[in-house]
Amino acid sequence: MLGYIIRRLAIAVIVVIGVAAITFAILHYLSPSPANVVLGTKANRAAILSWNRLHGYDRSELAQFISYLGGIAHGNFGFSYVQSQSVDALFKENAGRSAYLSGAALVLSLIIAVPLGILQAVKRNSPGDYAATAVNFTLYSMPSFFLGLILIQFLALDWGIFPPGVSDTVTSTWQAIVHPSQLFLPIITLALLNVASYSRYMRSSTLDELAQDYIRLARAKGLSQKAVVLRHLLRNACLPMITLVGLSVPYLVAGNLLIEVLFNYPGLGLLFFNALGKEDYNVMLAYTLLGALLTVFGNLLADVAIAIADPRVRLD
Amino acid sequence: MLRSRSPIQGCALTEPRDLPPELKLEQDLGAGALLVPAPSGRLGAGLPDGGDVQAVSSGWRLAVREFASNRLAVIALIVLTAIVLFCFVGPLVYHSDQTASNILAANLAPGGGYPLGTDENGFNELGRMMVGGQAALEIGFFAAGVAIVIGTLYGAISGLVGGFIDGIMMRFVDILLSIPFLLIVLVLATKYNGTVPEISLVLGVFSWLAPARLVRGEVLTLRTRDYVIAAQTMGSSRTRLIFRHLIPNAMSVTIVNVTFLIADSILALAFLGFLGFGLQFPTTSWGDMLGNAQQYVQNGEWWLVYPVGGCLVVVVLCCNLIGDALRDAVDVRLQRK
Q1: Which residues lie below 8 Å from residue A77, measured CB to CB, with a gap of 6+?
Q2: Which residue of A19, B106, B133, B267 has the fewest C-beta atoms within 10 A of its own C-beta?
Q3: Which of A284, A302, A306 lies closest to A294 in space, CA to CA?
């Protein structure tokens, strides 16, 4: 197992370097230097050249990339010339709020999706199962911001239960935690979207397990339906969820982007969105890299976690 | 003699679903195990030399019949066709000015000459939905087309060549797959001009990875089939193998994937439009029309949000339903159950 993890980590490092190279190349192609952003569009050529020389943008692309990689290895993701702050500081400030939003949504969606999927499978082809499948399929086909808009319309504007956006008073992660009503709508929007895909997998994995002999045996020895489901089925049917959660880590980040923009919630997604408009390339590069890192390590974690949870899985 | 993708095509001459399970299994094994000497007179007698054309078409016919028996998918296909007609034929019937804005007629509620009201530029919302739908559907189809062409070729080449080059090609796919799709598209979106071909290309160029993997997997199993080995023995070039034998037989995987790609591209376009990186004004797509949706909702201008959003959801839903049904229709393992 240890050997496997080490090998996967080595591959992960190569993949991350590859991702960094590709994103770096694309951004570099789009804008070779942030000089125009810093000095303004009317800056004269000499000023731009000297700025480039001062900040190392006159070197070859390869040299710039290598020094960028070196920076990353030391936890330095460059400098945001638009915000006049280092990218690490910006990320540190916003990461907690994003993680809280994603994490709360993830936990909530698992709490809903696991029982829902099992219930659908146990009572399959009942009207309730069909209704839940229809709702899930519709949610699955819905752009996240549109679901958010519908929830804003009903829960915030028509019935006035929750505020339509996150207010400016939510400045820290702690503030976000102690004001749950502020974040209710973004969290529920993300959670519902996750439920739509999770419960589909949960339903089909439960259906697979229900056909297994050990379930038939449990029934044959006279266990009640409740005991069969809770003691025998649940643990086995949940195994695919481990992989699914691992795979959906990057979607949580990208999904965050739209939800954070819609509700004006100051997280990494909103940071990236604002960087897009202002051509703040180091922030864009770092956020894309973070997404890739989460993808790679989400996959790795899922594989390792499933091997720990399920002794039948052998990693080699 | 049978260029079959799957054992099921061997018994496509009969109706597999009506047979008792034991018999069906036996037939599947009989036809799938070795196709060359027909196990009974059943296959050999009816087919002339080169009867492969018949066998392939019956495989497709079986898939079509399977698809048609899925009522939900047929409804989805009808609804999708209706929306396509609404977007492309609608403007010929229902004329509205979609190039010049008219501030005096801005933000009108439905009624009068405007069945769905007007937006903040005074455009007729119903007409705008048609034009926006055209762009959304066009980009969906083009992007899926670009992705499927690149993906199929890449996957087929990688699978056929195999070995070290295959390894390198697939690691490259792994790396690209690790980059979150929406983020990299948004990064590129900061610099493009927002025309239909451009956005299609950007979306397509970053969504060929899944089809490439699927086609490669399919090619890996196809290249050990007898007919491919036979073609190789007869001296077919790699190009001929890919275009004549591998790609046509991997078609079922591709077609299923196209529908999902269309759905995903339309969704991605909606995200781009909502974030303000969609088409250049005054051209528009459904996503662009929802760009200020938050404001519309707060102002109570429901006609600018729900008809467009509804269309978007219905189109994506229909594509997903059709894709699911197609997958069931061509998935042999499911049919055999």
Answers
A1: A71, A86, A87, A88, A91, A282, A285, A286, A289
A2: B106
A3: A302
**Contacts for A4 with CB less than 8 Å, ≥ 6 apart:** A315, A316
- Give the dihedral of Cα atoms B175, B180, B182, B183; nearest 10 deg: -100
CA distance B249 to B219: 9
Q: Which residues contact A1 (CB under 8 A, 6 or more apart)?
A: A304, A307, A315
A294 to chain B: nearest residue by CA?
B178
ipTM score: 0.85
Q: Which two tokens stand for residue A159?
A: 């019935």
Place of tokens 């493009």: B192
Q: Can you give the pTM of this predicted structure?
A: 0.81
Is the bond preceding B282 in cis, omega lying within 30 degrees of 0?
A: yes
Asked whether B312 and A143 are in contact (CB, 8 A), the reply is yes
For chain B, where are the alpha helices, taking DSSP H only? 21-33, 41-46, 52-68, 71-88, 90-93, 125-161, 163-178, 181-189, 196-205, 209-222, 226-233, 238-240, 247-249, 251-274, 286-289, 293-299, 306-330, 332-336
Distance CA(A257)–CA(B186), nearest Å, equals 11
A283 reaches B (C-beta below 8 A) = no
Q: How far is A219 from chain B (nearest CA, A)?
A: 25
Contact B184 A23 (CB under 8 A): yes
Measured CA to CA, the distance from residue A238 to residue A242 in angstroms comes to 7
Inter-chain touch A149–B297, beta carbons under 8 Å: yes
Q: Return phi, psi of residue A79, to 5°.
A: -125, 135
Residue type, A299: N
Torsion of CA B182, B184, B190, B193, to 10 degrees: -80
Give the integer Cα–Cα distance in Å for A129 and A124: 6
Q: What is the mean pLDDT of each run of 10 residues along chain A (316 residues)?
A: 84 86 85 74 78 77 82 78 78 80 87 89 86 88 87 78 70 70 82 88 87 87 85 85 82 74 84 83 85 86 83 73
Distance from CA of B4 to the nearest CA of A (A): 30
Band of pLDDT at residue B146, cut at 50, 70 and 90: very high
**Beta partners for A79?**
A86
Residue A38 near residue A51 (C-beta atoms within 8 A): yes
Contact A284 B187 (CB under 8 A): yes
